[in-house]
Design brief:
Layout lengths: L5 E5 L6 E5 L2 E9 L3 H14 L5 E8 L5 E5 L9 H11 L4 E8 L6 H18 L3 E5 L1 E9 L3 H10 L3 E7 L2 E9 H12 L4 E6 L3
Antiparallel strand pairs: 1-7, 2-3, 3-6, 4-5, 4-6, 8-10, 8-11, 9-10
């Protein structure tokens, strides 16, 4: 079975983009996020920055393997703003991302079709202005062993070209490894089968 162990995300906040439709202005923003706390902070910042705006509509998706999302119309007609924004997150296939579209009403009603199109376009422009990268989904392992086992452990690390994230090498040694998901089981078994070395998988922070 082929393990999906990559995901797409953005590296940094996009430039502000502006889409105009019948005097209404739609400012689009994309942010990389990893928690709902961060999402709240970005929304508060934008509400301060655009305190005179009428609507701050957004959608976000979090999670690398089993993502969850939310879409918010913020007072626009149901499904005319949040879902079209979320549709662009899906269409660009990105996660750990927040997209906000801030609307200043220009006095002319756009109708639901016009709103859907405007929010979709502003979200698309924000993502096009972002740097999208593909990253691997990694599993973290903690390896514990006594100092005399050091050479054995280091040999496995070197032979498999493993990424050491942290290490404490004293009498009791501890190494934190980050291993690409599709390699994780094989690496786990390698260390697990090594005498006097214990390995445990760390929960994703």
């Amino acid at each position: 079975m082929d393990v999906k162990d990559t995901y797409r995300t953005i590296t940094k906040a996009s430039e502000e983009v502006l889409y105009k439709e019948k005097n209404s202005k739609f400012f689009g923003y994309a942010f990389p996020v990893t928690s709902e706390e961060e999402i709240k902070d970005h929304l508060e910042e934008l509400k301060k920055k655009h305190h005179a705006a009428r609507h701050w509509c957004y959608a976000w998706q979090l999670g690398k393997e089993d993502p969850h999302y939310r879409a918010n119309d913020d007072g626009e007609p149901s499904n005319s703003a949040g879902m079209p924004i979320y549709g662009q997150i899906q269409s660009f296939d990105v996660t750990n991302v927040l997209i906000v579209v801030v609307r200043y009403f220009g006095g002319v009603k756009l109708g639901v079709g016009g709103l859907i199109s405007a929010y979709k376009t502003a979200a698309q422009m924000a993502l096009e202005a972002s740097m999208i990268v593909t990253r691997t989904i990694d599993v973290k392992f903690e390896i514990k062993f006594d100092y005399p086992e050091m050479n054995k452990v280091m040999r496995v690390i070197k032979e498999n070209n493993l990424n050491v994230e942290d290490q404490i090498l004293e009498l009791d040694c501890r190494i934190i490894l980050s291993v690409r998901k599709k390699e994780a089981e094989r690496i786990y078994e390698k260390f697990d089968a090594t005498y006097k070395v214990s390995i445990t998988e760390l929960e994703d922070q």
